[in-house]
Amino acid sequence: MAEIEEPITGTPFDEMKKVPKPLLAQPLVLLVDDDRGLSALMKRYLNREGFEVENLYSGHDVLEWLTKRRPDLLVIDYLMPDMNGKDLIQELKARDIDIPFITVTGQGDERLAVEMVKLGAMDYLVKDQVMLDMLPSVVRNSLHQIEQARRLEESEKGRQVSESRYRGIFNASMEPILILDLKGLLIDANPRACEMTGFTVDELCQKRFSEILAEDESGFWNKLALGSI
User: For the chain, is the Cβ count within 10 Å smaller at the N or the C terminus?
Assistant: First the structure.
């Protein structure tokens, strides 16, 4: 493997460093590459940006390490001594382990990078003279996307919990509740409303509230609408 020297500062890729900082407090990046010298350089560049980094050097090392911890992001070299990146990701999927990852390939191996993207890679890096300079920004971008996805998932879970609580109160209420849209069409009714009108929810949702009032022979709903009850 060709030796990669530390690049000169002030490259065109400096602009890539201006992406938002990751929202995770101290992201843990698991770096997997059998080239120990290159791994040490990659770790140094990521440490400078505030990332916690663990170095491993084979696919089997990764599988054993993951029985104890979970990183926020994997950065894996495609070619490793015991298995390639594709084999490792497929093994993780078989074990129901889902960890976001970035893949690293050698020059001329972009086709392999495309295969890894199809397997779910968030991004890829090519081992060339600017890779080290690009590494922190690519990792930072990926971690930012991961955190945004987590927040969106948490928000959706919160919405579902709120909806469930609302539905429980709605269904348990002893007061009739009818929900109308802006056009006056009924879109929902609780069990008490169905009991008092004699209609099912589906039947009510085919009517306008004005039709309910027109069919109200006892005058109950008219009185209710006028606040007399």
Answer: C
Per-residue model confidence as pLDDT tens digits over 100-138: 999 998 877 778 888 898 899 999 999 988 999 999 999
pTM of the model: 0.64
Side-chain-side CA neighbours of residue 11 (13 Å): 13
Q: Which two tokens stand for residue 92?
A: 């993780």
Tokens of 90: 């497929």
